[in-house]
Amino acid sequence: MSKEYRMTDTERHLFHQGTYYACAEKLGAHPAEAGGKRGFFFSVWAPGVKSVQVIGSFGGWTEDGGFMEPGADGVWSLFIPDADVGQLYKYRIVTADGETLYKADPCGFRCEMRPGTASETVDLSGYVWRDGAWLSGRQNHFQKPLNIYEVHLGSWRRHEDGSFLSYRECADALIPYVKDMGYTHVELMPLTEFPFDGSWGYQVTGYFAPTSRYGAPQDFMYFVDRCHKSGIGVILDWVPGHFCRDAHGLCRFNGKKLYESFEHKQWGTFNFDFGRPEVRSFLISSALYWIGTYHLDGIRVDGVSSMLYLNFGVDDPKEKRFNKNGTEENLEAVSFLQELNGAVGKYFPDVFTVAEESTAWPLVTYPPEKGGLGFHYKWDMGWMNDTLQYETERFEHRRYHHNLLTFSMMYAFSENFILPLSHDEVVHGKKSLIGRMPGSYEQQFAGLRLLFLYQICHSGAKLTFMGNEIAQFIEWRFYEQLQWFLLEYDKHRQFQSYVRRLNRLFLEQPALWSENYSWDGFQWMDADNSAQSVLIFSRTGADGDRCLAVLNFSDTAYPEYRIGVPEAGSYKELLNTDAAEFGGETPDSIARYKSEAVPMHGQKQSVSLRLPALGGILLRCDRKTAKKSIKTGEPSCSQTRKNSNQPTPQN
User: Fold this and answer.
1) What contacts 265, CB < 8 A, 6 or more positions away?
2) How do residues 91-120 score in pLDDT, each as one tens digit?
3) Is residue 309 over pLDDT 50?
4) What is the mean pLDDT of residues 313-338?
5) For residue 34, which phi and psi values (nearest 5 degrees)?
6) Which residues are catalytic?
7) What whole-number distance in Å separates Cα of residue 239 and Cα of residue 299?
8) Domain architecture of the chain: domains with CATH
9) Which candidate, 491, 647, 609, 622, places its Cα nearest to that of 545?
């Protein structure tokens, strides 16, 4: 063979030890040459079975030949001459009990378009990447703005006949849209091959194959390449916690439990056996393969809570499991996640990992050597739940639930958080975001504009699901495109324009992101005004620039509302959510406010402004006037920046 695809003794040892992270190089189907003939070399791990055959379109699907050579350690291999790119195949496995199974390749790099279930031979060596400049500049992500647009490729937009856009068509349509709207990254719901559309990609059969729904692997490479050339990062949802029970997948791969440990009662799937070394090698190889082969900038690990707890979703006390210490933590999963994050950090130090973890598990974003799981970021599900619960409250009741808005700052810097308004919050009867807003039609839009300003000004990175930015009233439907026709109506078009302006403003103001993960970047000015449902806080950047957020969650406008400011000088209104151009009632103008020596909110200086109902105002301290104010004895913007020695998570 032109390249040796058989595992070396060292690689086999590492594979069975759980530390071989290059399964994609030796398992699966690879174009090869032997004896002067071109073909494909196949290799699969199937221990404890009688025989394994490769059957496929190159042999007319006959079951007379294609017998693989067994290895003593359960790794089977075979070179098939004249096998070509684009041919379908499966493994025919006869188990120790004589049962015949037909399996797709666990390390297959492309899968047959559903409802077909075969794997497909592919050669990925020909794609030429052009994103070198992007890759060389993506370090230090903690010091950069992170505003994520979460996307389900199958329903963002479709053709008129209802068919999917391809990866390349998404590159032409989605990327310019994301760029124009001011997002920094796209997060793609799972593209690892999956059989059932209704699972949204979260029940996987192909851990090394981009779904064929949208095209070939090279087409996905093109999509990522185009994202990078447009300055957009790419994050992929990745699902190592469980897999579906479809017969052609990983379930009972050798007739017994091989990849799986026990059934996930809540989802009808199987949890991976994180204690089996070969499974750890397989999964970590999958993550590194996606990052390396497709140049991903981050992976978001789905369902981390379901991995960490042995009894996640188990209600019957008789079915509960416990670890060796008599507690419910899945110690093997904890070790796996630490190993996964360590491997990503070792081989791709400029790539980040994100945990979807919905409990109070400690130190998720701390390094393993400090007892942490090693993720870079964690979704702040507490902020999301509290905020959306508050938003559903009637205006006259909000004063009694004010703590739902402020509690997040009690733990805001215990982890590196991303604030998610994700797909999970606009399905299953939860209503769309705008559908949660109380009040009249106009008040619903006003409330949603305020929610988005609150999110963008709060400490932490940001994430919003597609459709939220056009204020879609219906819940997300995976089987059809977003309701883009809504942009024919003024309110929806104005709201989209507002989100665009807000996102761009976020990028322009380092005060809103350069100190996102420590108290250095946040200061309460007034957190306790529950009677009027008003929040006031400041955000400070690494350079000392300061922005001030004034948020009114009540349906009462205040023509003259005085707020304390931390320094003397002039304040420019960067954004007013009630501006007429966004569908509000405040005339479009750039307001400026001169501070006065009137004490308020514990500050010596204050300004008086008009605070709209269900409205927010973002102010920026004018550094020029602040520098002049030093002569008056008042602190300037740069002088009032808080310094903290509080330890932070991963950074």
Assistant:
1) 313, 314, 319
2) 999 999 999 999 999 999 999 999 999 999
3) yes
4) 92
5) -150, 135
6) 302, 356
7) 10
8) 9-120 (2.60.40.10), 146-402+418-452+462-506 (3.20.20.80), 519-632 (2.60.40.1180)
9) 622
